[in-house]
Amino acid sequence: MxxxxxxxxxxTALRDTTAALxxxxxxxxxxxxxxxxxxxxxxxxxxxxxxxxxxxxTGGPTENPFTPSGSLTGTPAELVEPSLTASAAAFATLDRxxxxxxxxxxxxxxxxxxxxxxxxxxxxxxxxxxxxxGRPSPLDDDLAAQLLPVARAIVEPLRQYGVYAAALESxxxxxxxxxxxxxxxxxxxxxx
Length: 192
What we know:
Pfam families: MDMPI_N (PF11716). This protein is about 55% helix and about 0% strand. By secondary structure, the chain is mainly alpha-helical.
C-alpha cells in the first residue's frame, strides 16, 4: 500500500483484471484500436515503471510502452505485478505536500496530481483489458469521480501526442465512470 488510496485502488483494479485473464484473452482486441490485451498490459506495466524511473532515477521500462511487442515471456501477472509493486514503493517515498518529477511532458507536478496520473493510467487500462475480455468493469463511479479532476488537469496537452483520443460527447445520464471514459475518448459501451 502506498498511502495514496487512489493509486492503491487503481493498482488493485489492474491487478485483479490481470489475474482473471486466460490465455485466450491475450490476443483479443481492445478499445486501444491498435493494441491487443497483451500490448495494453505491456503498456500499462511500462507506464508504471516510467513513473518509478522518474521518481527514483532507476527501474524504468525495458521496452518503449508506446510500442509494445505483444510477446510475453511469462504470465500477465508476472509482467504487471512487479511494476505495480515498484510504483507503489516509489510513491510511498514521496512527500504528499511536495512535487515530484513525472514521465509526462508536463514534467514536475504536485505529488497528489502525479499519483493521480499514475492511478488514471492503471485504472483506465484495467478497464480496457476487462472489457476486451468480456469481464465486468473494474472502474466504478467512485474511483472515476476521484480520477476525473486529475484527467482534466493533465489530459489536454497529452492529446497532441496521441496518448488520448479526442473527448467524446458526454451524455446526461452518464455516471462518473462513463463521463471519465468519454473524456478520455473511450466509448463506455465498447465491446469487442
